[in-house]
Amino acid sequence: MATATPQESACSLVEDGTLTLQTEAGCVPYYNGIVVTEDILLVIDYNAWNLQIHRRPDGKLMSSHRLEFIPNGVCLISKTDVAVCLWNSTIVILSFKSIDNIKLVKTLNVKSVFDDCHSVAKLNQDKLIVSGVKNAVFYWCVVNLTDGHVHSTHNVCGGGIGIYLNCSSHIAIKNGTVYISCWTSDSTVVNGVYAYDIYNPHTPKFVYRVDAFRPTSIMVDERNLIYVCDLNSKSIHQLTDSGHLVTTHTLSSFPYRILYDDKHGVLYTTSKDRNVITVYRLQYSHQIDSVIPAEVLKMDSRSLQMYKEALNEGKEKVYNIRVMVVGQYGVGKTTLIQRLLGKHINISERHSTDGIDVHVECSKFSLPAGEWTIQEKDAEKYSRLQRLVKILNERAQKESKSEQEGKSELDGQVTSEELDNGHPHYDLPVSAELNTNQEVELPTSQPVDSPIARVVPEVSSEREAKENKKDTVMEIIQLVNEHSGNLEKSTVEYAALAMWDFAGQYVFYTTHQTFLTSRAIYLLVIDLSQQIKDLIKDDECFLDTEGIKLCKVHDLIEIWMNSIHSCTPSSQPGIPYVILVGTHVDKIPENCRQRVIDEYFVHICEILSNKPAALHLVDCITIDNTQVDPRLEQLKKRIFELAKQQPHWGEEKPARWLPLEQAIMTLKASGVKVAPLSLIEEINRSGSVRIENKDEMDLFLRFQHEMGTILYFSIEGLRKKIVLDPQWLIDAQKSLITAGTFINKTPAIVSKWCEFKKSGKLAHELIDAVWSKEKNPEFHDNKDHILLLMEKLNIIATPRTYDQEGKEVKVENYFLAPCMLSDATPREIISPKPLPEMESSSVLCYVFIEQFLPAPIFHRLVAACVAHWPVAKKNSGNLIYCGCCVFDLDLHHRLTVFSRNHVIFVRVTIMGKTLSFQLCAEVKEFITMTLSKIIGNLEQSLQFELHIQCPKSVGDSVSSLFCVADLQSNEAVPCHSHGDSHVILSSDLLRFWFQEQESSNVASSAGPSQPHPTSDTDRFMSITYLLVDVGSRILRKLLCHHTVTPACTLDQYLANNMNKINSLLKRKVLHQSQMDILFPPSGANTNIEDYDVTLLSALFNNIVPGLNPTEDNMIKSLREDRNILYGHAKSCKMNASEYQTCWSSISSTLITLSQHCGDPSFQNKMVQEIQRTYVSVIPTGFYLDIHKTWFSKIETAEGSLETVKGSLETVQGSLETVQGSLETVQGSLETAGDTIKALKARVEALELKKVDDEN
Fold it and tell me: SS in 3 state form for 67-90?
């Protein structure tokens, strides 16, 4: 478990009273959920089976509604509607438009997914997120509010919970992340908090667990802090959104359910069997309450901690206003900016902006009065100097307090008198302007009076260092005194203003996307003299596979609004703000001007209605650019009002960063475009107020990059150079895009330019011609770095060529720029004719949820693909077009990627061979990861879902796309988009891209004609895995199905059958090691995961009643197969014929048994796993596990043989002893025989003597 440092303590909970709710007579309340709206509280009562409405101030019961079953969770879905999930796996939608009249609207049945519903939360206007349990496993799913259709179901903990009578889960969602708290009394390993990405829910983003944890409820506040009720410790655990524990709040009462009221900034907690709700006020700590930039908050925890530590050393509030002026070509954007900046304008001259023009530090706002003033040259520079002196004062005060017993050489403050006399005590790394346009290199030595030496003074000793400090500060004071007339004498604070003028031509849109940000106010300029449905004839657009087309005025308005919306922070809807500015009002007749203006703006609002982008539009203002329009002041005032409402207004940054910021500004102002990292580090080391180490320096530079001040990438190959002026890179790109203006003077490269414009092929000869030493020396000297940056940003890519064996043989000596492609894609590329020898995958579709895909996103994806795979060719020409590109994945497979509207389509084809599912999966993984990375790098809030196109659809049709989540939840889906309706098997669409998701019908068939395991060893291991791993899982599930009930755990069932199991031990059906698995000697609970096929089959045959003949026969068959193929195998090999026979027989048996487990979701999961074993090579880890098992058995057998051998030797020794005894006995017997003979002879002699005597 990760724990945050004490400095990260984000918020304390201050008890702010209690609210006692009125109860119905004779009822003991058990509040299982709570929501708040306006002035009422709605609670669900577990004991009373009802929904209650209480007045917030005094808790008076206003009304209640009896529910048909026990309520488990509740959420607000609108101002007057709630969703309540009931224990019996239904969700009821209730309306309370009148507080004394609650009505049932509808009931949604989710019994196919859950045995018990636990919790519900609102995902969006149409969908709910629900958590619960099914067959002793926690799940969560997405449910359609309209009809209860389940879109996707996901296992939470990855395993069973043993018993599900005494368990609970609670769900919350924030910014696309689903948070679930789970608890069960039987399996403490499950207890914890799980976080899943709603769009990639296969593995948790984090899991939070602690000992003796009983999480009963979870919520997330507006700052993405997570609060989890722990009933065991009477506390609330506070986590970061990455799962780190910040702190634990101990409460006065046991918390059961929790609710965050964002309107009032308080928490409500309920307690079990009490009608009292406790109210807690959130009191954020100073560090968190001080505004930390969102760009820092999203960094790793180490960066965030360094930023906080730097703030502790001193900080200053930042007030910056960035105004982005966007819109169609020729509507008057540049003129509007000139008017706002108070510049003289010749209205008869028309100048078109290329790329982006940035006007920095030309104007400012006084914070108290909100007045827009024109800023004189260098005023901002010397304002920074004043702020630096202020920092020195604060630092001097701190040091003087710590040095009271001894005199310091740096005692005292920098006072206004000292400023006049020029006697300060601290230095800052500030220099006079540098006179160079080239990249600054740091020489080993500098003349004393050189500009670099003034920025980076040499320090050879401690004493000399102190002198240099004084000299440097003297320079600051001298600069301040020289320009004292330019400095503000009052303490009034100002907000710096920067204005960005975006070119309107469509060809520059790819460049624009890099610089769009939520940290701006946008002026969307429109020409009111145009009709909103007019075609824009002087600007060609090329958005997708259609190629060049003319857009209408409202099309470009929507494109700009959607592009701006794509920058919206997920937690701040409506940010950034957009003001619609109408120009050319002078062209509208005065007698109908106001009516036309009003109708125009209304029409735009109608076009944007019901679209997320409409949230950003906050005002509409008209300006007559032909004169100094009085409404300019209205626009300025509105900009300032909106700026103060932006989340980053007044955020704090470390004061010790200010000196280096000033030094960078000095370099930039002197014309330095690119600086080596070593120079920036040396400048930093020269001052007493400096960044402490390389890690903090890297953070500082990354922060400046995020702010848009510089371009810095902390990766090898790029980190050693820093672009100080981002517009310089924009200028470099636009010089290539508009290179046609140069070719008249350089006819030798006309063909290269035409090729670039038509096919996006950017030749080095064209680059060298445009960035020549004479025309663009800055670009020429930094050519390699600029091209690396453009590749990093996926604006261009270097193609590669492969030989016939698929090996890379060379890197092409040119770049591809997808943003330049304008030719429409041939229809035969998008919709190839089916051929007998060609196999094609289903078409995987990336559908952007808000129905907008910025063209630059697709351009960057194509560039990334170009860098990853070779572009396919036909007749020596590249198969790359506007909105489409074809790639060679290998010698036989081809990939086609194309876009239309808001969808990216992906298809893999092969000629004369069988399509590789593994290759399709790799393509999906690469494109998914690349898209996510591009969106993240551009700081876009775009989200996409995976769909698959109906096979009967043609090309780039978006009329019949099926959500992958729906396909995974249904065996078949109907399609009504092609005349006659038809049904499609989900497996036919999923099998190419999601091998693990195929349905049971296909899985139980023979499978693909060419199994992936091709070696004898791979085939044997595949069958072994099927029996040992998959077979054991299915039998374990079947055992639980027959033995475990809500009233009886598996341990209890085994204990109840102890006599039978002991008899199995006596009869040697079981051996002692198996008994130790069933009844661990430690006294712990049995772990069913340790049960193998042999043990399971023994239990089924002897202590599990109720097996039907089919189950019984199949279990016996599995054990026999296991003994033959695994237990008694003579080798680890299997030929293809044996494999096919075994796989068909065993997979059919396992699929049938999975159907008897009583859990459709488990059945589908096992079917997917069975199919995977057929088409996949079993991981090496499984080989090792099997060999370890065999080796262990061999060692055991060897030990047993040694024992037997010893016993035989003992027996042999005994036999030798017996033999000796027998020999002795035999000798004795021989002696006895002789004696007997002698006696007999003597007797005979005596008898003869007697006869003789008688005679």
Answer: CCCCEEEEEEEECCEEEEEECCCE
**Nearest CA-CA partner of 426 in 463, 460, 381, 475:** 475
Residue 56 CB coordination number (10 Å):
15
Q: What is the pLDDT of residues 576-626, one digit of tens each?
A: 899 999 988 888 888 888 888 888 888 888 888 777 788 888 888 888 888
State both tokens at 569: 């922070």
Cα(802)–Cα(812) distance, rounded to whole angstroms?
Answer: 11
Determine the angle formed by the axes of helices 726-737 and 783-792, rounding to 10 degrees.
Answer: 90
Q: What is the pLDDT of residues 270-302, one digit of tens each?
A: 886 678 888 888 776 544 444 577 777 777 667
Report how far residue 987's alpha carbon sits from residue 1009's, in angstroms, rounded to the nearest whole number: 16
In tens, the pLDDT along 327-347 reads 887 788 888 888 888 777 665
Q: Does this model's pTM top 0.90? A: no
- Which of 1158, 1054, 1151, 1085 is closest to 135 using CA atoms? 1158
Report how far apart, in Å, the C-alpha atoms of 686 and of each of 431, 466, 660, 1174 are.
Answer: 12, 11, 10, 66
> Which pairing describes strands 800-802 and 548-549: parallel, antiparallel, or unpaired?
unpaired
Phi then psi for 386, rounded to 5 degrees? -60, -40
Tell me if 897 sits within 8 A of 885, measured CB to CB.
yes
Instruction: Return d(Cα 869, Cα 863) in angstroms, integer.
Output: 10
Phi-psi bin for 267: left (phi > 0), alpha (psi -120 to 50), beta? beta
Q: pLDDT > 70: what percent of the chain?
A: 73
Which residue bears the tokens 């057998």?
1197
Task: Classify burial at 367, counting beta carbons within 10 Å of its beta carbon; exposed 0-12, middle 13-18, buried 19 or more.
Answer: middle
355 pLDDT tier (thresholds 50, 70, 90): very low
Per DSSP, which regions of 1064-1200 are E strands?
Answer: none
Which tens digits make up the pLDDT trace of 973-1012?
888 887 667 778 888 888 888 864 443 333 333 333 334 5
- β-pairing, 808-811 with 884-888? unpaired
Count H helices and E strands in the chain, helices first. 36, 53
Q: Alpha carbon of 690 to those of 304, 547, 685, 700, 708: distances in Å?
A: 18, 53, 7, 11, 22
Distance in angstroms (rounded) separating the CA atoms of residues 583 and 866 = 42
Q: Which residue has the tokens 């027989």?
A: 1145
Map 550-588 to HEC letters. CCEHHHHHHHHHHHHHCCCCCCCCCCCCEEEEEECHHHC
Tokens of 952: 């009967």
Residues in the chain, overall count:
1255
Structure-token match 């703000």, residue found: 577
Three-class DSSP category at 879: coil
Please report which helix (H) or strand (E) contains residue 917, including its range: helix 917-937
Mean pLDDT of the chain: 75
Residues 6+ apart with CB under 8 A from 124: none
Show the DSSP H helices in 483-613 as ranges: 509-513, 553-565, 593-608
Q: How far apart are CA 753 and CA 551, in angstroms?
A: 25
Q: Strand locations in 849-883, DSSP E?
A: 873-874, 877-878, 880-881
Bridge partners, residue 886, by sequence: 896
Task: Give CA–CA dist 328/551, Å, rounded.
Answer: 11
712-724: per-residue pLDDT in tens?
887 777 888 898 8
pLDDT of residue 129: 93
Among candidates 854, 752, 860, which has minimal Cα distance to 813? 752
3-state class (DSSP) for residue 1190: helix
- Give the whole-angstrom CA distance, residue 585 versus residue 600: 12
- So what's the pLDDT on residue 130? 93
Half-sphere exposure of 1175 (CA within 13 A, CB side): 28
> Other CB atoms closer than 10 Å to residue 950's CB: what's the count?
21
Unique residue bearing structure tokens 């087309």: 549
CB 115 within 8 A of CB 132: yes
Which DSSP letter does residue 716 get? Answer: T
* Residue 540 pLDDT grade (very low, low, confident, very high; cuts 50, 70, 90): low
